[in-house]
């Protein structure tokens, strides 16, 4: 403990903007690191300093800030005051500062910011004289009390909003800029009363107390519910902490020659180059991102202030070239003087990500390997979602700003609570608000899409939606949103009540009443070979996707196969780029009309009855495999022998019992039903997923696996004799010990030899097993003696490692586990690297130690999960297998994993 204290005393907790750089994001947070980087580039950044994330961690761990932090802050504040030639909060010419959060990863609106720190009853008059504008001074003071009251003192923000709305109503105006100094003085007085009543204390008049309390509030905002929810959603670690940036204030609310804005070096929605962003005259920065006043397009700044516009364009070019990426910029103009308040690599939509990556390659700013790292599988999956059918009949009711693309349909809801409640009940919802704020995050997550009547592409709703990949339309001004009455009214007078279905198009900004039909995405059409790169917008996107995918395919080591059970799925998978089938589930071939044959097999009392049932199934199984081998000719096809418990092929026990009971009451009982009921009772297990299934079926039911192996071998021989190239692999499921595999393999080898002799065809069939039980993973070295390949069944392995029954636990307590942070993500969605992953890793090492040429793959749905694909690359698997629609995602992530590991090796 004393060593920790000694280390703490040697730490530096505060850095001036001139001391840092963009590589110090772990220490200074993204905002602080980039403010330092812009300062070093000589750009106009207001002077200031950053309190490190390490100070935040100490505060959160101990409940108090580091002992030396106050002295360090005082020293940097003194230096700032010297630079500015004024003191914090002094009466005649006050220095004012902002206190803003800034974590390593962007968390827009999730943590606290307080502007205008240093204003008081005494200094507000000095600010008025200094600025020559009394209204500005009182407007700044009311903003401070409002933000400080809400974020630092915990006062309900609605109370301030209501008082502001009342003041505008009394003056009969609609925007706060129409309130004069006298109005604002009254509002300040009212705001102070609200603070006194709700917080139980007066608004602090000491400027240093304001700053210290604001710093603590920013630290504490790291662990607010909304911040934790956002981190879980974005998979941001919870132990990073936030930095705090103290920056000298510059004012965009000094009149029409002042303003504030947000700019992007490229369109974050489409990726196209041009002038993109929002500007708001006579406003402070929070007004833009909060969306409480509708902005003008950034291009209009040229006509408002040509000098500042030209300077901003030059700075944007400098920053994009320097960062080699789309940059998101916050700026303020104070009476014609441009100031840069923030830059970061901007969030973008999935389509923009692919376009920008290839554009930057063409401009020579990045290479193809870096372009591959600029996109990800989750973005590609978004691009494969359907879009609205332009040719369909639709009822257009409004239009807003296309903030985040996609086609979203759902029932209208007007608050986050309802969105979450209805979503949990299985309803698809569209969250409709005037504007969103950070408290709406849980509702935004629960919704299919977000619609707001205010705000632009840089509003809270737009930025957060883009980050989450949610469809969003903002600034639909012609739609009047009444959250209290839970309704929305169109300009034509149509009223949309809560529960009415609406459709929003985040690519065009259009809003429709009712459900609009959807059509396949152009990216899906491209993967299926029905679309090629051309001139229009969709074709341009397809071209960008094609280029990135082509590079990913060139560099990836992992091959990608499909989980497919029939020829139709196999052909689709092949169009999507599958390099074989990693899992063909033969139980799916026993459903429908064939269920009766399986029932006869289960009911068989004699060898003859059993042989008759198997003989009836053999030609049907063979036909299935012939079609599959033809669809996948020249590529490997891994066929899993029958896996599920037999009760799944029999009628439901309750339904059958009722049927038999009714028949007996009528004295016309069906003999077959009686035998079935006896069989159902006989096969009934308390936990069938851990009972008679998999390899155990092959050992207990004579001839079952032999019939399946014969069907595979005869189909392969027929295909080979037809000049085809079948590459069948036989997989034995649920093996827990090498002896099980040896017995089944001996029988299979004998059957294959019989078929080879009968057909005069040499069949190079390989036999392996699924590793889906902990014991199999722990004894993989022994099992590899009898197996030519392993395929990890990570779904069952996850169930057996965790002791979870997936169908039960996901519905019962997984939501609570995710909310409490026990899981960052479901272990069935992304592989549990520490537990399940550890078994996979050790099984790979032990298996290859026994058999160096052992082929290794994975066939659970983890095979299509982006993060899991990287893990499988790392541990040395040969392939992943997933559902057909996940194949492009797996291909892309396999390429990214290879490029990433190559980059790590070179470093």
TrEMBL record:
Domain PEP-utilising enzyme mobile: 427-509
Name the record gives this protein: Pyruvate, phosphate dikinase
Keyword Transferase: yes
EC number: 2.7.9.1
Entry cofactors: Mg(2+)
Family of this protein: Belongs to the PEP-utilizing enzyme family.
Enzyme's top EC category: transferase
Pyruvate phosphate dikinase AMP/ATP-binding domain location: 66-294, 303-351
Gene3D superfamilies to which the protein is assigned, alphabetical: 1.20.80.30, ATP-grasp fold, A domain (3.30.1490.20), ATP-grasp fold, B domain (3.30.470.20), Phosphoenolpyruvate-binding domains (3.20.20.60), Phosphohistidine domain (3.50.30.10), Pyruvate Phosphate Dikinase, domain 2 (1.10.189.10)
Database matches in NCBIfam families: PRK05878.1, pyru_phos_dikin
Organism listed in the record: Streptomyces xanthochromogenes
Catalytic activity line of the entry: pyruvate + phosphate + ATP = phosphoenolpyruvate + AMP + diphosphate + H(+)
Keywords from the named record: ATP-binding, Kinase, Magnesium, Metal-binding, Nucleotide-binding, Pyruvate, Transferase
Domain named PEP-utilising enzyme C-terminal: residues: 543-894
Superkingdom of this protein's organism: Bacteria
């Amino acid at each position: 403990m004393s060593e920790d204290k000694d280390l703490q005393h040697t730490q530096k907790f505060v850095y001036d903007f001139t001391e840092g750089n963009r590589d110090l994001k772990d220490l200074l947070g993204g905002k602080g690191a980039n403010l330092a980087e812009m300062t070093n580039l000589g750009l106009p950044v207001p002077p200031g300093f950053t309190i490190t994330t390490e100070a935040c961690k100490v505060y959160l761990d101990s409940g108090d800030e580091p002992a030396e932090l106050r002295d360090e802050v005082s020293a940097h504040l003194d230096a700032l005051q010297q630079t500015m030639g004024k003191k914090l909060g002094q009466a005649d010419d006050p220095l004012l500062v902002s206190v803003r959060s800034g974590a390593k990863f962007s968390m827009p609106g999730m943590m606290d910011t307080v502007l205008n720190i240093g204003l008081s009853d005494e200094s507000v008059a000095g600010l008025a004289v200094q600025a020559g504008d009394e209204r500005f001074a009182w407007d700044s003071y009311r903003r401070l009390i409002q933000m400080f009251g809400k974020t630092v003192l915990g006062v309900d923000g609605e109370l301030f909003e209501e008082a502001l709305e009342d003041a505008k109503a009394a003056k009969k105006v609609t925007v706060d800029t129409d309130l004069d100094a006298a109005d604002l003085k009254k509002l300040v007085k009212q705001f102070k009363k609200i603070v006194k009543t709700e917080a139980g204390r007066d608004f602090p008049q000491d400027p240093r107390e304001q700053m210290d309390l604001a710093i603590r509030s920013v630290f504490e905002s790291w662990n607010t519910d909304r911040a934790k929810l956002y981190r879980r959603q974005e998979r941001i670690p919870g132990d990073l902490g936030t930095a705090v940036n103290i920056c000298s204030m510059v004012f965009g609310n000094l009149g029409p020659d002042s303003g504030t804005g947000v700019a992007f070096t490229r369109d974050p929605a489409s990726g196209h180059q041009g002038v993109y962003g929002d500007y708001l005259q006579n406003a402070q920065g929070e007004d833009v991102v909060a969306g409480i006043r509708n902005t003008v397009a950034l291009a209009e700044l040229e006509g408002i202030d040509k000098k500042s516009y030209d300077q901003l364009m030059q700075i944007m070019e400098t920053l994009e070239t320097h960062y080699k990426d789309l940059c998101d910029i916050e700026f303020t103009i104070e009476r014609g003087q441009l100031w840069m308040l923030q830059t970061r690599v901007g969030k973008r939509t999935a389509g923009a990500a692919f376009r920008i990556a290839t554009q930057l390659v063409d401009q020579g700013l990045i290479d193809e390997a870096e372009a591959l790292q600029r996109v990800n599988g989750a973005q590609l999956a978004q691009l494969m979602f359907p879009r609205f059918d332009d040719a369909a009949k639709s009822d257009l009711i409004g239009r807003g700003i296309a903030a985040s693309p996609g086609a979203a349909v759902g029932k209208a809801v007007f608050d986050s609570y309802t969105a979450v409640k209805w979503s949990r009940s299985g309803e698809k919802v569209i969250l409709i608000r005037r504007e969103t704020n950070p408290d709406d995050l849980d509702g935004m997550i629960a919704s299919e899409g977000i619609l707001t009547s205010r705000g632009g592409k840089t509003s809270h709703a737009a930025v957060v939606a883009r980050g989450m990949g949610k469809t969003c339309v903002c600034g639909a001004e012609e739609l009047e949103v009444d959250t209290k009455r839970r309704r929305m009214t169109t300009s034509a007078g149509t009223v949309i009540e809560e529960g009415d279905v609406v459709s929003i198009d985040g690519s065009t900004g259009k809003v429709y009443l009712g459900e609009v039909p959807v059509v396949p995405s152009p990216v899906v059409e491209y993967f299926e070979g029905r679309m090629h790169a051309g001139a229009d917008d969709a074709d341009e996107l397809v071209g960008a996707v094609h280029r990135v995918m082509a590079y990913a395919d060139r560099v990836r080591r992992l091959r990608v196969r499909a989980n497919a059970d029939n020829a139709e799925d196999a052909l689709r998978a092949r169009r999507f780029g599958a390099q074989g089938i990693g899992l063909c589930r033969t139980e799916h071939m026993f459903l429908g009309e064939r269920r009766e044959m399986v029932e006869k097999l289960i009911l068989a009392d004699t060898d003859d009855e059993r042989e008759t049932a198997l003989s009836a199934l053999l030609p049907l199984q063979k036909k299935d495999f012939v079609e599959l081998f033809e669809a996948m000719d020249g590529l490997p096809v891994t066929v899993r022998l029958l896996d599920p418990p037999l009760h799944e092929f029999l009628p439901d026990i309750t339904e059958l019992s009722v049927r038999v009971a009714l028949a007996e009451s009528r004295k016309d009982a069906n003999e077959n039903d009686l035998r079935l009921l006896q069989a159902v009772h006989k096969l009934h297990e308390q936990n069938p997923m851990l009972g008679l299934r998999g390899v155990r079926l092959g050992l207990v039911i004579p001839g079952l696996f032999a019939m399946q192996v014969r069907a595979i071998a005869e189909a392969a021989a027929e295909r080979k004799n037809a000049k085809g190239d079948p590459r069948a692999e036989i997989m034995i499921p649920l093996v827990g010990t090498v002896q099980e595999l040896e017995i089944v393999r001996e029988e299979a080898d004998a059957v294959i030899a019989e078929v080879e002799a009968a057909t005069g065809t040499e069949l190079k069939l390989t036999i392996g097993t699924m590793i889906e039980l902990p014991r199999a993973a722990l004894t993989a070295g022994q099992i590899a003696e009898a197996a030519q390949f392993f395929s990890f069944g990570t779904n069952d392995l996850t169930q057996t490692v965790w002791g979870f029954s997936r169908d039960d636990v996901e519905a019962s307590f997984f939501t609570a586990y995710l909310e409490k942070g026990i899981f960052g993500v479901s272990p069935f969605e992304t592989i549990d690297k520490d537990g399940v992953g550890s078994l996979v890793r050790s099984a790979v090492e032990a298996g290859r130690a026994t058999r160096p040429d052992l082929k290794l793959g994975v066939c659970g749905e983890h095979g299509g999960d982006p993060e899991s694909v990287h893990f499988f690359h790392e541990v040395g698997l040969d392939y992943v297998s997933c559902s057909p629609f996940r194949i492009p995602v797996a291909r892309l992530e396999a390429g990214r994993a290879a490029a990433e590991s190559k980059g790590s090796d070179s470093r």
